[in-house]
Amino acid sequence: MKRTSTANADCAVARSLDVIGDWWSLLIVRDALAGLSRFGEFERSLGLAKNILSARLRKLVAAGILEVVTDPERDRFPRYVPTAKGKGLQTVLAALWQWGEAELFTPGEMVRELVDRETGEKLAPIEMHAADGRLLGPEDVEVRAIR
C-alpha cells in the first residue's frame, strides 16, 4: 500500500509526520543531535540497511533538517549535521524520551537518562504552559481554526 503524503495537510502534526514520521528518521536525528555525523556511524548505531539509511538521509537533507558538510580532510566522506530546523527537534525527542521513560519501562529498567551537560542533573519534565505561565494539561488545550 502506497503511503499518502500529508505535506499539504492543514494540521501541523500531519505535516511534521510527513517529514519525520517514520522511526528511522527520528532515530537518525536523535543520533545526529548526539554528535554522530558520518554514514558509517549511523549505520553502526542503528543497524540499518544502507539503502534505507541513504533514503532517510536524503529526505532529511531535502527537508532542511540535516545538511551535508564536506570535510576537506576526507572529501569522500561527508558529514550530516543538524541545521537549526533539525536542532528544533531536540525538544520533541526529549518529550518522546520522557514519555517512553515514564510509560514503557519498569522501575529500575532504564539504563540511560537525559541530563544537562553542564550540571549532570536529570532534565525536568517537559510541560505545556500558557502564555501567562499557567501549567496546562490536555483538557486545557484545543485546536482552533485561525482563518
Give me the CATH superfamily: Winged helix-like DNA-binding domain superfamily/Winged helix DNA-binding domain
> Per the principal axes of the C-alpha atoms, what is the gross shape?
globular
Please report the distance between the alpha carbons of the first and last residues: 34 Å
- The neighbouring-strand order within the major sheet is 1-2
Structural class: mainly alpha
- The proportion of residues in beta strands is 5-15%
CATH architecture: Orthogonal Bundle
Mean pLDDT: 92
Order of helices and strands: HHHHEEHHEE
Helical element count?
6
**Low-pLDDT segments, ≥5 res:** none
Largest sheet: 2 strands, antiparallel
Provide the gyration radius in Å.
Answer: 18 Å
Overall helicity: 40-55%
Structure description:
The chain is mostly helical. The protein is built from six helices and four strands. A two-stranded antiparallel ribbon has the order 1-2. The chain is globular.
Q: What features would you highlight for this structure?
A:
mainly alpha; Arc Repressor Mutant, subunit A; two-stranded antiparallel sheet; 8% strand
Structure, briefly:
It is built from six helices and four strands, in the order ααααββααββ. It is mainly α. The protein has a single domain (12-140), classed as Arc Repressor Mutant, subunit A, CATH 1.10.10.
